[in-house]
Hints:
The structure holds 2 protein chains of 2 kinds. Chain A contains 15 helices and 14 strands. Chain A is an alpha/beta fold. In chain B, helix 1 runs antiparallel to helix 11. Chain A: It is an enzyme of class 1 (oxidoreductase).
Amino acid sequence: MLGALSRNRPLLALLRGGNGGDKAASAALWAASKRFMSSDNTITVREALNSAIDEEMSADNKVFVMGEEVGEYQGAYKVTKGLLQKFGPDRVLDTPITEAGFTGLGVGAAMYGLKPIVEFMTFNFAMQAIDHLINSAAKTNYMSGGTINVPIVFRGPNGAAAGVAAQHSQCFAAWYGQVPGLKVLVPYDAEDARGLMKAAIRDPDPVVFLENELLYGESFPVSQEVLDPSFTLPIGKAKIMREGDDLTIVTFSKMVGYALKAADELAKEGISVEVVNLRSIRPLDRETINASVRKTSRLLTLEEGWPQHGVGAEICASVVEESFYYLDAPVERICGADVPMPYAANLERLAVPQIDDVIRAARRACFRKEEKKQATA
Amino acid sequence: MAALSSLRVVVPQVDITRGASGAQGAHSAGAVGDKAFFGLRSGQRLGAEVGRVTLRGCGVAVPAGNVRATAAASKVVKEKAKSEKAQLLVTKEEGLELYEDMVLGRSFEDMCAQMYYRGKMFGFVHLYNGQEAVSTGFIKLLRKEDYVTSTYRDHVHALSKGVPARQVMAELFGKTTGCCRGQGGSMHMFSAEHGLLGGFAFIGEGIPVAVGAAFSSKYKREVLKDDKADTVSIAFFGDGTANNGQFFECLNMAQLWKLPVIFVVENNLWAIGMSHYRSTSDVEIWKKGPAFGMASAHVDGMDVLKVREVAKEAVARARRGDGPTLIECETYRFRGHSLADPDELRSPAEKAHYAARDPIVALKKYLLENELATEADLKSIEKKIDDVVEDAVEFADASPLPQRSQLLENVFADPKGFGIGPDGKYRCEDPGFTAGTAQV
């Protein structure tokens, strides 16, 4: 018993916040303690989210989780697995099916100094609570003249899943991305999930954290740094996943994976694609987007949501406004079909972008290939 | 009783134009000084039987006749203690405090109307005239750190909670010295210092927020082990809100988790031009509490002393940890819904009936009859309030408008936002970041 305690002490000290010990050794110790970790540091997005929430709850006991099935059911998508056992029912609350009520309750608790993480089973259900997301969370810091802030995180799966039809498949990135007062994050891989979740929990403003159900089970290799409890990512900074010279693809969430696969295919044809993973819809990293377009001269935006007033529309507008003279081809927008999501499997495939669509649009954009331009930003 | 078709005008159950002395069950207006009744005990079976219980620690009594034959058994009636000398409900200091607060509310709102018609105030302005007893009766029992949420009719809640009249008036004028720096306005009064969490334009929006503040209080006590955390929160809202889904969701959660929140329905019978009787299937709002297992009461909201008695018990229950209470206050607004409302649908007879029950006049009468104050005392209070309100107007007039740069301020609490600290580096690179907060 005592032996077990003394083994855990350095681990606990590490989890309570870095103490200047040997970083690599302590990270390795931490990694070894997590049974799900394989030896080559690959974790799933689900594990990344779970560990991020777990660590933040350990570090700050004002953080708590609430939502439907987050406790005893271990999370509708198992993202909150194990948290009830570890932190107890006072900090992991199973709520009744009352989105408007419990979202407002979370906002009130945040106004009073706690740090809630509100889970929506999917963001479609958040439409029943959107009044509180916008009117009491996003707008309060402004309406109160800066005296009352709302440090709350709203998280859950967003966008299309598989065969769940119209009311369960909407992408809300464009809707929330329009609202001043919200920070909107869209992680892709495990590193994004961990870093952005930690940043979101620590942030003093309301954060809408749009995950993707189909990405939860995907594994990604992560570095030791990512596994460290103090790892966070800055909010508002995009990541260049892959460098290229001929075409910029700007995208987020699951579509980043599609863009990377398309880029591999296009490389065989001699088209070198730069893939920008937005990570953050609001604030949008216009600097990174425009710097990339000024380098490649061609833009392709890729998203699963509907085309009109979508995220791609904003990116295209931003590039046309700021980098018009650098463009060698019209901007290309790939979006989901302008229909509610159909149920039939073949129709559903037609309603969301596929890798082939990306490849074809990329070839179209590269039709007038000019000499390479210098990066100017 | 209620019409099945909305095409017919619904006759209210109670004839409100009858004189104040009639005993008419739940809607009766007793004389000032009559005790309020407090119906609760949701655990009892519904049925025709009504029990009689003395409320613990509270010497309050009610006239035995005030029971509706068809009422649910969850209402409990107390025996009236007929005594030679009327039991005084307030001390002199308390009485004068209540009087001053109500006169402040009334004068302030009257001044708002004047300023609006002179163009100093604009947009939507909803005045509270006539309902002062509810705000004063409840809020004057709270501590500074207790929380209040309200709707758009929030000026007087702000004043009762302690926000200085100057700051409220400046906010209404849209000046930078207002309590929200001019960024909130009439419908969005917030004050972190005084525990006013809004000011919400959407009815029903403030209720979950108040429940959340109550949740925080309980969380601090039980999870963060802060024994002194026993703050209470009150949500004020109207009869129209009592039909809204969020209200029911909150009744459920508050009772389920026994949160220290009080739901106060200011039933002024009208939601803009929609009569309560035309829009509600069961007009007795207090009855919605027992459906969720919650203690509830109905009280005459034109009588500040009755409201105060009921409020005392509700606040004490919440602080003890006994859970939420739903209180329906029968009240009335003397003016229209807002300053833009022509107020054509309410009958003059109804308005006259309630004007005769003006809470300020009633309290004045009580204080004088029971020799708790003299005319001179009350006159000096009125004069003092006139000065306060005049001063507030002058202050607001003289205050500057917000500067242009203020337009983009306060969108986020994190000033540099976007994960970048004041030194320009990414926050995640800061060695102190593991401390767990972005506060810089």
